[in-house]
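As a point of orientation, let us examine one representative protein, giving the amino acid sequence and backbone structure tokens.
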Amino acid sequence: MIPRRNGRLAPAPDEPTVLGARSRTPQPRNGCVWFVGAGPGDPDLITLRGWRALQQADLVLFDSLVDVRMLEGLSAECVYVGKRCGRHSMTQEEINALLVESVRSGRRVVRLKGGDPAVLGRVGEEALQLAERDLPFELVPGVTSATAVPMLAGIPITHRGLADSFVVATAHRRSKEMSLSIPPFNPETTLVLLMARATADAWHTALVVGGYPSNLPVALISAGSTPEQRVVVTTVADAFSDLHAADLPTPVLAVVGRVVELHDQLGETRSPSKTHTTAEIAAAAVGNNGSAGSPEGARPIFGFPTGDTNAAPQQVDTRSCH
């Protein structure tokens, strides 16, 4: 892939990034932003590239759905800028201004968002603020909750003979006058609704109007990928009443379609993985070297590359964040 800098084609790095390769010579610390997807909730599900960006940051601006255990052990200043149910710690305009100001002052910033920042995460709005000012940034994809949370509940959103496509839509409305982007019923399509708790009455009505059968299975998943994960399997007819009867806490994701039938066979055989603090991850990443605090020959928690602990810190191949 040809790297881009500020939306333009940039020269390819002189040395390609290979996992496990020796560190590059550290680059000058110029200001930049990594927009990083933190994954669906479990800290283990952040990408290796995102994790490395966190190690290099001196400022982390994180959202409400980020598990704060992911921030433990970081040397960076961590600032909460999340928004939940109309309660905003900062306005979007204030976040945009903070990003611009931080890069111009030479800070290396991770803008840490839940899931994949490009899926209903406003990453485009924030990155455009930097692109329009010719400031460097990199987009780091994440594991989106739209596909990961159903899978961890034993519901693959496509399955041969049940569904060959899926639609992801937000159930959140900026105003009561806005309609939801729910397509007409197609038996071969799975519908995934994010942020589904507060507007359950609206999307339930939209399903009925859209021709979704009353007995079509619906899964309501709360706090997906975390130890607090809860799954309620119901139908289109009963989804609204069952959601409120179960009193599921946010965030809630709804899966509508025949693939929900697989939950009975797959759901109880997979539980959320043990979460690890950043300090545990870092210790495990050097475990093969017999470092202090790690059993000699211990294997890393993740498949992170290991090497000489006296070598220069591993540099993120920042592409646009040089």
